[in-house]
Amino acid sequence: MFHYTIRRLIFTIPTLLFISFVIFFILDTAPNDPTGNLPLTIPPEVRVKIRASLGLDQPMFIRYLLWCQQFFINEPLNMIEQWFDITIGDGTRLRVTSWSTRSPVVDLVVERLPQTLWVVGMSYVVGILIAIPIGVISAYKQYSWFDQLGTFFSMLGFSVPTFFTGLLMIVIFSVHLRWFPSIYDTTHKVTDWSSFVFQVKQMIMPVMVLAFFNAAQLSRFMRASMLDNLQQDYVRTARAKGLKERVVVLTHVLRNSLIPVVTVIALGVPQVFGGAIITEQIFKVNGLGQLLIIGIQGADIPLVQTLTFIFAVLIVLFNLIADIIYGLLDPRIRYD
Amino acid sequence: MLDNTATILDVANLTTVFNTRDGAVHAVNGVSFSLAPGELLGIVGESGSGKSVTMMSLMDLLPSPPAEIVSGEIIIDGEDVRAMTTAQMRAIRGGKVGFIFQDPMTSLNPVFTVGFQIMEPLREHLGMSKRQARARAAELLELVGIPDAVIRLKDYPHQFSGGMRQRVMIAIALSCDPKILIADEPTTALDVTIQAQILELIRELRQKMGMAIIWITHDLGVIAGIADRVAVMYAGQIVEHAEVKELFRNPQHPYTRALLETLPKAEGERDKRLKSIEGQPPIMNAAPTSCEFAPRCAHAFARCHVENPQRVSIGEGHDVACWWDAKTGGPRDA
Lengths: 336, 334
Ligand SMILES: Nc1ncnc2c1ncn2[C@@H]1O[C@H](COP(=O)(O)OP(=O)(O)OP(=O)(O)O)[C@@H](O)[C@H]1O
Ligand SMILES: [Mg+2]
Description:
The complex is a heterodimer of chains A (336) and B (334). With 336 residues, chain A is mostly helical. Chain A folds into 2 domains: 15-84, no CATH class; 107-329, MetI-like (MetI-like fold, Orthogonal Bundle), CATH 1.10.3720.10. Chain A has helices at residues 2-29, 44-53, 60-84, 105-140, 145-159, 162-176, 193-230, 233-240, 245-274, 277-282, 288-297, 301-329. With 334 residues, chain B is α/β, with parallel strands linked by helices. In chain B, the strands form 3 sheets. Chain B has an 8-stranded mixed beta sheet, with helices on both faces. Chain B has a 4-stranded antiparallel beta sheet with strand order 2-1-4-5, covered by helices on one side. The longest helix of chain B has 18 residues, at 192-209. The two termini of chain B are 23 Å apart. The structure holds adenosine-5'-triphosphate and magnesium ion. Adenosine-5'-triphosphate (ATP) binds next to strand 1, strand 2 and helix 1 of chain B.
C-alpha cells in the first residue's frame, strides 16, 4: 500500500503539469480581453501599454513558464516564510497576482476558504449524515412507505435546481417568517453565545439547500449498495449463526455496503472546495465559487488559471485518496 | 400428535408458499419427517424440489415476504419452534442447529476475518469473552483440519481456497456444539477430490461430536456411503422414505427408481453417459391435487392424474407415496 501510494503520487506530477498547461492554453486561446471591462474612452495605445504591463506581449510559452515559476516555486516559498516566520533569500519574489484586484491570488483563496469550508463543507457533512441512515432504512424496508417517501424526496432533490430551492427558502424563511437572514454576513465573528446563534442562523439555509441536494444523490447510492448486499449469501450465513438482526444489518451488510459509498464520498470532496457557485451567489456567501465567477466575468486570467488548477489538484488528490480508502476498506483489494 | 420421545427433530405437514408478484409458488407441500439423535438423514431430489426451502423453513430463514409458512409443526428437542419468539428462535439458530450452505465462495463475509466470523456465534450463544472465543475458534479451525490455525484466524475469506472455506463454514456451524447439523449440498460446488475430503471430515466430526445431520444432495451416490436413512423429495413432497440399504435394494417409487438408474453402476461404467430422467419437474403454482410425477411416470394410470397419493408404510420404516405398487406391478389396493 505504501509503495503504491508513493508510485501514484509520483505519477500525479506529470499529470498535473499537463493539466496546468491545458488550462493555460485554453484560457489563453479563449477570446478574452482583460482591458475589455475598462471604460471605452481609454485609447487603443494605452490599452496596448496596459496589456504589456500585464505581461501579455510575451509569447504564450514564456507566460506559462512564468506562471509555473510563480505558482510552483514562489508561492510555496512564500508560504514557508509565513508559516515559520523566516526570510528566504531577499524575500521579494513575483507572486501569482490577480489582474483586477492586484492582490496575490493565493491570498484571495485563503481569505475566502473559511466561508466555503463552513457552508459547503458543513452541507456535505450534513448531507452524508442524512443520506446514510435513509439509504439503509430504505433498502432494508424496500417498497415501504418510508422507502417511497425517500424515493420521492431524492427525486425532488435531484431534479429541482438549487437556485429554486434556495429562493424558495429565502421567500419562506426570510421574507415571510423572518427567521433567518437572506444574506450571509462574512464579516460576522463568533465571540459569544448570541453571535454563535446568529452564525448558525445565517448558515442554516445555504447548508440545508446544499445538504438536500447532496443527500438526494448519496441516499440513492447507499440504498442501491445495501440492496445489493442484502441479497448476498453471507447475510443468510449471518442469520443462520443466530446473530441479532441489528448486527446482521448494521455490521455485516452495512460494512460491505459502505465500501463503494465511502469512495464516492471521497471523490466528492473536491466539489466542496470548488464551492457551490449557484448557492453562494444566491445567499451572497463570498466563497471560492463566487471568486471563480468574478474572475471569469472580469477576464482575470491568473485568478481563473490558478483557481482551476487548485481544483484540478484536489480532484487528482482525492481520486488517489478514494483508491487508498477502497484498498483499506476492502481486504480483497491489494495494490502491491 | 407427534411422537417425539426419541427424536431430536420432528416435522409434520410443513407447507411453505412464496407469494410472488407472478402468483404463488408452492415450494413445500406437507413435508413430514423426523430425526433421531446422532442420525444422518439424507434428502435427495432434483433441483427445485424444495429441499433448501424445507430446511430454511425449519429455522425461519426465508425472507418473508415473499415466503410464508402456511402450516406445519416443527419440534426441536421437545420445543415447538413455531411458537417461539424471535429471540428464542435466534438462540436455536447457530446454537442447537448449525447450517452449512452450498457455495463456500459466497457464504462468508468478505470484509471480516475468518476468526471474527467463527467467534461471533461463540460470543452470541455461549457468552464467551473475546479471548475465550479466540482460543476456541483456533481449536475449531484445527478440528476441521486447517493447519496454523492461530495465524489463519487473522486471514480473510479470499485468502482461503474453496475447500478451506467450506471447512471454515463447518467450523462455524459446529462452533456451539449443535445437536443438529443441516448441510445443504455442502460439496456440490467443490472439486471431486475436495468433495471426498469434506465428506470424510464430516463423517469424522460426526463420530467425535455425535450430532444428528440432515444432508441435502442431488447425488444418491454420496448418500449411499454416508446416510442412515433417505428421504426422496419431488415437487415439495417426500415421495419415498426408507433406511438407506432398503431404499437401494428395494426402491418403490418410480421416481426413486429413475434416480437410481441415473447412477453409474460400477467403476467401469464411469465414462458412459449418465441417463437422466425425461421431462421437467413441474412448476408449482398450486397445491398438488394429483401425483405431480405422473406426467413423467411410465406406470401412471387414471387415478394418478386425479388424486394425490399420501405416504403409506409398506414395511419396517419404509414408506412411499404412490398409487402404483412396485411388487405387483399394478395399482396399490388401499
Ligand atoms: N425467494 C423465492 N421466491 C419464489 N420462489 C422461490 C424462492 N426461493 C425458492 N423458490 C422456489 O421454490 C422451489 C424450491 O426451491 P429450493 O431452493 O428449495 O429447491 P432445491 O431442491 O433446494 O433445489 P437445488 O437442488 O437447486 O438447490 C423452486 O421451485 C423455487 O423456484
Ligand atoms: Mg437448494
